[in-house]
Specification:
With 512 residues, this protein is mainly beta. It has a single domain (30-507), classed as YVTN repeat-like/Quinoprotein amine dehydrogenase (Methylamine Dehydrogenase, Chain H, 7 Propeller). 5% of the residues lie in helices and 33% in strands. The protein has three helices and 33 strands. The chain has helices spanning 9-25, 177-180, 204-208; strands spanning 64-69, 79-81, 84-90, 103-110, 116-123, 143-145, 148-152, 157-161, 198-203, 221-223, 226-230, 250-254, 260-263, 281-285, 288-294, 299-303, 317-318, 321-326, 355-357, 360-366, 376-382, 393-399, 409-411, 414-418, 423-428, 434-439, 449-451, 454-458, 463-468, 475-480, 490-492, 495-499, 503-507. The strands form eight sheets. It has a five-stranded mixed beta sheet, with no helix packed on it. Strands 1-33-32-31 form a four-stranded antiparallel beta sheet, with no helix packed on it.
Length: 512
């Protein structure tokens, strides 16, 4: 009997063995897309990719697959899905002569070569610079789910985009792409095949009364038929009051229509010290799905996911809080803006995303980077027994050098995290026992990535460092990128992606 390949059983066996061996050799043989910021189900900063680079050299091209020019400032993290790479930046290097000036930009690049497929160009909010900071661009990572791309623009809009862009026509029901891309008072420009195709749009500033601060920021959590979105509500221009205290911090939209279906009812607004920075995450806790969200008041909230279907009467429902945890209970809780600029005493806030690992939650918190106390911690939280009700407990609290922007990476049962005190930390995930630290030249805003028995760090001074993911400190690679890195390194399909302020590097081991 012969197989469908036309090979004899013995030869077919040899072919299979060869392909298995080839899969073990090629770094991208077991690769997968990275369609969102962090791993789904834990939102840990880790990856299952193998065969990733330990070193590279942009000057000589060593282990550099391709390089794509970005704007002049980049704060978002790339995501990779369906043969495309999506990354927010600014318009400091315009790719379309019709779209000049300061704008938020989402680039859609070909995964194979980094060539531009299309871009989303969003004009700035003109209310004041504190709504949409000059040249910050689009700061939010995209989330790709199925055949849709979800994004929060610099204008506080939740957008649903078609992955092919306008190359396959205008998919609708949104048809005003030309008007949307035009600054206030300017005529619309007819979209080309290199423009984004917006399917629907939800304006959080208009519909929820949100007063975003500095920019809109945060990765969208897609779960079931719902999208969970940080609204970026924050202080006004004076930095001493919350202009929209009743606006929600966490909003829930229907994935297909963009309709608002739920919101938090915790009235976090008056306690927001600066802004709402954190992205929502989700994990199964003792068999129950919970949505984790770190508020601008420094408190971690756990919510039940929003119910499926339309809300009764069409009125948005309130999310059901299951428990909350205050990692800094002694900090001020009322009239919090009295402490603006106080580097010794202030409320805490949270810029990182909570990470779930082996039944526990890990988060960095502390004084605000720009306006609060210098004190900061990494905290490990144990949810209540049963996953609902009761009180969450602190397992350990580890002091950091200074403010931390980083979402921790938990890999090989070790926690890796950096801070603005220019220090990298490695500690035991179960006990908080410190194993090693490493001092760097620049502040660390980018979250680390744990993958392939390595952990990747980058700094605002352009240092890119690769350590062995072990209890013993072993630096195995270091590169000077010549510019600040604010974005988390990302691994997908055997390729490591590293974004500086001005360039995106796709890195892959090259055969001798």
């Amino acid at each position: 009997m012969r197989y469908k390949t036309g090979l004899s059983p013995r030869r077919s066996l040899w072919v299979r063995l060869f392909l298995c061996a080839l899969g073990a050799i090629l770094p991208n043989a077991a690769g997968a897309d990275r369609p969102q910021w962090g791993e789904y189900g834990t939102h840990n900063m880790t990856s299952q990719e193998k065969g990733l680079v330990e070193s590279f050299d942009p000057a000589t091209g060593k282990n550099v697959k391709w390089v794509a020019r970005l704007g002049t400032e980049t704060y978002a993290t790339p995501v990779v899905a369906g043969g495309r790479v999506y990354l927010g930046t600014n318009n400091g290097a315009p790719r379309d002569p019709r779209r000049q000036g300061d704008r938020g930009i989402l680039l859609c690049l070909g995964e194979k070569n980094g060539q531009l497929l299309w871009q989303l160009a969003v004009p700035k909010l003109t209310t004041s610079i504190y709504w949409d900071w000059p040249n910050a661009g689009i700061c939010s990572p995209a989330t790709v789910e199925g055949n849709r791309v979800y994004l929060v623009s610099n204008r506080g809009e939740v957008l649903c985009l078609d992955p092919p862009g306008m190359a396959d026509g205008n998919g609708g029901p949104f048809r005003e792409e030309g008007r949307h891309a035009a600054p206030e008072g300017a005529p619309p420009v007819e979209p080309s095949e290199r423009d984004a195709d917006i399917l629907w749009l939800f304006d959080m500033v208009k519909e929820l009364g949100v007063r975003q601060h500095d920019s809109a920021h945060g990765s969208i959590l897609a779960y079931g038929s719902r999208l969970y979105v940080n609204t970026s509500n924050g202080v006004d221009d004076s930095h001493r009051r919350i202009a929209s205290p009743e606006a929600p911090s966490l909003a829930v939209l229907d994935r297909e229509t963009g309709r608002l279906v739920a919101r938090d009812a915790e009235r976090i607004g008056p306690r927001i010290f600066h802004s709402t920075w954190s992205s929502p995450g989700l994990a199964m806790v003792q068999g129950n799905p919970l949505v984790f969200f770190a508020g601008g008041d420094g408190i971690v909230y756990a919510f039940q996911p929003a119910a499926p279907g339309k809300p009764p009467g069409g009125t948005p429902s309130s999310l059901t809080k299951v428990w909350q945890f205050d990692g800094d209970p002694a900090s001020p809780k009322t009239e919090v803006h009295r402490f603006i600029g106080n580097r010794k005493e202030s409320p805490s806030n949270i810029k990182s995303m909570p990470v779930f690992h082996k039944g526990r939650l890990y988060v960095t918190l502390g004084g605000d980077q720009w306006w609060g106390k210098n004190q900061a911690w990494l905290q490990c939280i144990e949810p209540p027994s049963g996953g609902s009700g009761g009180t969450a407990k602190e397992v350990f609290s580890y002091p950091l050098e200074r403010h931390s922007m980083c979402t921790p990476a938990i890999y090989n049962d070790l926690v890796f995290v950096g801070d603005s005190g220019r220090r990298i930390h490695c500690l035991d995930a179960a006990t908080g026992k410190p194993y090693w630290t490493h001092d760097v030249r620049g502040e660390i805003w980018a979250s680390p990535l744990g993958a392939d028995e390595k952990v990747y760090f980058a700094t605002r001074q352009g240092e890119f460092l690769v350590f062995a993911a072990s209890r013993e400190k072993r630096l195995i690679g270091q590169t000077d990128l010549g510019g600040p890195v604010n974005s988390t390194p990302v691994a997908a399909n055997g390729v490591l992606y590293v974004a500086t302020a001005t360039h995106l590097y796709a890195l892959q081991k090259k055969a001798p």
